[in-house]
Amino acid sequence: MSSQKPAYKLVIVESPAKARTISKFLGKTYKVEASNGHVRDLPKSQLGVDVEHGFEPKYITIRGRGEVLDRIRKEAKGAKSIVLATDPDREGEAISWHLATVLGIDPQSACRVEFNEITEKTVKSAIRQPRPVNMQLVAAQQARRVLDRLVGYKISPLLWVKIKKGLSAGRVQSVATRMIVDREQEIEQFEPEEYWYVEADVDAGGKRLRAKLQALDGERVQIANEMQAEAAKARIQQGGFTIRSVKRGERHKHPAPPFTTSNLQQEASRKLGFTTAKTMQIAQQLYEGVDIEGRGTLGLISYIRTDSVRLSEEAVSGVREMIAARYGAEFVPEKPVVYKGRKSAQDAHEAIRPTNIDLRPEDIKASLSRDQYNLYRLVYLRFAACQMADAVYETQQIEIASDKGVLMRSSAERVRFAGFTAVYEESLDETPEQAPEQTPGALLDVTEGTPATVLQTEGTQHFTQAPPRYTEASLVRALEEKGIGRPSTYAPTISTILARGYVMREKKQLYPTELGIMITDMMKEYFSDIVDIAFTAGMEESLDEVEEGKEDWHDVVANFYGPFEQTLENAESKIEKVEIKDEVSDVVCDKCGAMMVYKLGRFGRFLACPNFPECRNTKAIQVEIGAPCPKCGAKLLQKTSRKGRKFYGCERYPECDFVSWEMPVREKCPNCGSYMTLSHTKKGDFCVCANEQCKTRIPAPESEE
Annotated catalytic residue: which of 303, 380, 490, 502? Predict the structure, then answer.
């Protein structure tokens, strides 16, 4: 009697959600199991890398994955074939290789499938086209893992011994922290420079317009102070103006490309207020599959870890048809729009897009959570807009000149054709210092040679602004531009430096903590390569070359480790142990009566009971700054926010709710009477008016601290 043949094929994916979605597509002849991510990794209790023998990693089963592997092994025994369908990137390829190793599958056999989107058509097509495991991708992932382990497990213990237990360093996280620390130093050292705009209201043949001073006596004007502004106004008020020229033109605005991982994280931060981690969490749900009423479980967007702006012909054809049907033929460009990716882009996958352009966000809103709907809508509209026609603007530039050498200019524009802006416009991180020359407004019917009369003039004072602090969005963009990390690393890197207390987030802005500054200064002095942006970007390029088969991963690690080992030995001998001694305060612990001591934490010094752990009482340090509260006249105290940022508040809180991020001083503004705050610059200390409409600056008294 012949034994019964196995009745099913086994497909192994990473997540249970993905498994549920795919199993509905494949039917009863398949079983789909989830590995819950990686099943093997380097041990946490030891280095796990044999530096003496080719840097071979020592892998063990991850704690908690034993039961998962037992279940997969059991299903594998009863399967007539096994297909590894983990995510289509380095990490996914490595997971497939680990699974093949554990299950005794030859990685060179046709055991691996991948799909860029989780739709029935794509999944079934992929299942029919298995391939071997791509060992170049595995090697690139293995090199990254080994490099990160060597840096983390070699430097971190040194920090524990020399400075403080619990500190850590990382190959990418240390560079990201350094960028935030360096930006903070730029802001602190920034010296604002004064400049003025001079504008005039002008009547030209009964048409009123606003014009900005451009030149005096043929030279472009740059007004540095109020005296120069008043002199310029006096020149304008001499009159004698005519319309010298009226130029009309056309401006085209192109749509933004479809989303890459970093673009999505940036735009979700700007438009939706999402952190990078939240964006990736919600995007993963949309990629793996959501239960849509009346349609079943569907993967709504394509693969979410990509740095490519490439789109499939099928996707482009579908969206062009949708645009023509919904918006009109004039919104469809003559040819499909093709976008050029970054030089360093992998281009292994398409850009992030909807898997089905016919699934409009509003039609499936009831089946999505609010966050899912908002992110899906963002992806959907960005994809639709990227294949739409340019927006077209009609522009007008009017030059008004006097016979006394004064030239002014008035610019305006209006929309002639909305194009893609009818659907979507990209947001910006920061507002430009200077307003664009073209401003929305009415285009005037004036002719050259028309006399013009100045009605009134106005000078406005401005100051150059310090570079803005990074937000998560702008940090991701900077990391990408500098070649630091890859699409899969941005969110975890930011999450790590926040969790370690090196960086804090306040109203979207990222600030370095005292601990982050201290660690970065030490890393810059003793491990300059690790926090060097160019060096780290070069390592990323080496990992890319491993993936392309141009480099052997062992050589990449060996070339790094030789100099790194010497740097490590030098640091161990030269870094002096930082003794963080407990300084006794004059504050009595109100729980046990002991004299509290000063401790150094993530966000600077605080008071703690010396009888820890029996008594866990802590207090913030209150520092009087010697200035009265502008609201009630009581004392002002320097305080620390929950996220570690210094601020200044009234001692009578909560009765008085005065609070300021900048330190108030005793002096009042000589112009408006408002309170002033202290500003440190290279040229000395200044008192700056807190009134946004005034912003008067005067030298700080020598006694002011």
Answer: 303
Residue showing tokens 């020149």: 235
| Cα–Cα dist 151/162, whole Å | 17
d(CA 486, CA 141): 12
Nearest to 390 by CA among 258, 250, 254: 254
Give the DSSP per-residue string, 212-270: EEEEETTEE--B-SHHHHHHHHHHHTT--EEEEEEEEEEEEEPPPPPB-HHHHHHHHHH
| DSSP-derived secondary structure letter, 671 | T
At 438-466, the pLDDT tens digits run 555 578 889 999 999 999 999 999 999 88
Question: Could you tell me which residue, 685 or 57, shows the higher pLDDT?
Answer: 57
Q: Is 477 helix (H, G, I), strand (E, B) or coil?
A: helix
Q: 664-668 and 675-681: which strand pairing?
A: antiparallel
Average pLDDT over residues 133-144: 96
Measured in whole angstroms, the distance separating CA 294 from the mean position of its chain's CA atoms is: 37
Most confident of 309-318, 483-492, 511-520: 309-318
637 strand-pairing partners:
624, 649
Which residues are paired to 676 by β-bridges? 689
Q: What's the whole-model pTM score? A: 0.80
Helix, coil or strand: residue 149: helix
How do 79-84 and 49-50 pair as beta strands? unpaired
Amino acid at residue number 25: F
Q: What's the distance, Cα to Cα, between the start and end of the chain in Å? A: 96
- To the query of whether residue 303 is one of the catalytic residues in this protein, the response is yes
CA distance 545 to 551: 6
β-strands 290-292, 296-298: how paired?
antiparallel
Cβ–Cβ < 8 Å for 480, 535: no
Q: Which residues contact 157 (CB under 8 A, 6 or more apart)?
A: none
Amino acid, res. 588:
V
User: What is d(CA 311, CA 349) in angstroms, rounded to the nearest whole number?
Assistant: 9
Q: How long a stretch of residues is the chain?
A: 705
Residue 108 buriedness (CB in 10 A; 0-12 / 13-18 / 19+): exposed
The single residue listed with the structure tokens 């969005």 is 473
> Averaged over 628-636, what is the pLDDT?
90
Please name the residues in contact with 158: beta carbons below 8 A apart, sequence gap of 6 or more.
568, 571, 572, 575
Q: Kindly write down the DSSP assignment for every residue of 482-503, as one continuous string.
A: TT-S-TTTHHHHHHHHHHTTSE
Rg (CA), the chain: 31
